[in-house]
């Protein structure tokens, strides 16, 4: 019992401070609680830049997710079903952005995007998000397609269905849990992406994490805290949804090739 | 078919990655080792600082996860297990900001402790803008992943081993130390490699919680070098140093997993 309380405190302490700050109207040191509570800052925020940053980030995430799925689902099917040369190497390439520090690489990538006029643009940010997001979709969908018994597709071929029709009517529907997982992972990654957006998006394209960073180094901690809370919501939704699927047993072989 | 997605990663990651090496040897358009000399002169402390923070954080994360998961595996506790999944879905920037608000000299933690007389109001300790704050943030966030992976590894261990140990009178701690840990060691190494690399490369957390004074973590140095000094050469030299560390860790990971157990 004591253990649960301790863990709950440790997990919730940083988050609860954000909640209090977001409802504080006036709070000066050293009072333990705000002197004035209110929805003042929530209202202020809804009229200002935060909403624009939120919309921007949301739209980028949607585009990133759609583009990623379109590009990776066929590729994953190929990798799962056909003897593609250098399969392991291809899969590992997608992992590179997570194996090496992103900041110095993205600094140089920004220069490359600048040369083709894509820096500080919506498309540039979408592209830099995809660099890191592709791996979630490729690895998940490859594993999912591999787990679908080929005999089911063979049955369809035997009945005269073309490869494409079999893919669409047999493989894809069976792969739905993987599609859902990939969609949520990619969407969340894009929504929360900070480093690439800071470098590539500045100064015109703002997403919520970058907006949150900018306001948190200022003095309006209430605005930053509200941004932080809003940023957490999609993650918490994903947590609840994946709680059914995120059994630790499935991850016992994580990373072991 | 594979081309577009591979192309994106190659163009916007692999190529810039390689050009780091190239740019790190350029200064004012000339081939030069000056950048690396600067890195040695100005940033060697930061390299040690970054490695130190990452090692301490990793040690804490693995240590806590090994014990907590042992308890969760043997005794079981649904709500604690759920609570540990929460930080997985909290973005790094939110962790940074939340920790800052909590641990700052005038933050909520000190304020709460002051009510019970532990903290002196006129001279509150500052955890936030020091290495301790960074370690706490990294541990908080990575513990979720560690618990998930370690618990998965523990759950793959045959219950028969634990039963045999229990029959011979082993306590929970002995079961963890003598059975669960040795059998799932490879999985722990994998998890450690993964988390260590991400800690070395952390940017948003030290940016928000690291404080203005040196030493800084390496990624913050890279950012400041680019943003305030426009020094592409040295920034890339720092980048190359960080890649070397990452490659070292990756090499260690590959060596461990390709040694098949008999």
Overall description:
The complex is a heterodimer of chains A (257) and B (262). Chain A has 257 residues and is mostly helical. Chain A has one domain (49-251): MetI-like (MetI-like fold), CATH 1.10.3720. Chain A is 74% helix and 2% strand. Chain A has twelve helices and two strands. Chain A has a two-stranded antiparallel sheet. In chain A, helix 9 runs antiparallel to helix 12. The two termini of chain A are 39 Å apart. In chain B, helix 7 (159-167) packs across helix 8. In chain B, 75% of the residues lie in helices and 2% in strands. By secondary structure, chain B is mainly alpha-helical. The chains are: A mainly alpha (257), B mainly alpha (262). At the A-B interface, helix 1, helix 3, helix 4, helix 5 and helix 6 of A face helix 1, helix 3, helix 4, helix 5 and helix 6 of B.
What features would you highlight for this structure?
heterodimer, A: 257 residues, mainly alpha, MetI-like fold, two-stranded antiparallel sheet, 12 helices, 2 strands, 74% helix, B: 262 residues
Oligomer: heterodimer
Please list the strands of the largest sheet of chain A in the order they lie side by side: 1-2
DSSP E strands of chain A, number: 2
Q: CATH-wise, what's the superfamily of chain A?
A: MetI-like
Biggest pleated-sheet summary of chain A = 2 strands, antiparallel
Work out the helix count of chain A.
Answer: 12
| Series of H and E elements of chain B | HEEHHHHHHHHHH
Provide the helix percentage of chain A: over 70%
CATH class designation of one domain in chain B: Mainly Alpha
Q: Termini distance of chain A? A: 39 Å
CATH topology of one domain in chain B: MetI-like fold
CATH architecture of one domain in chain B: Orthogonal Bundle
**Class inferred from helices and paired strands of chain A:** mainly alpha
- Please state how the strands of the largest beta sheet of chain B are arranged side by side: 1-2
- Total domain units of chain A: 1
Mean pLDDT rating of chain B: 86
Give the distance, in angstroms, between the N- and C-terminal Cα atoms of chain B: 40 Å
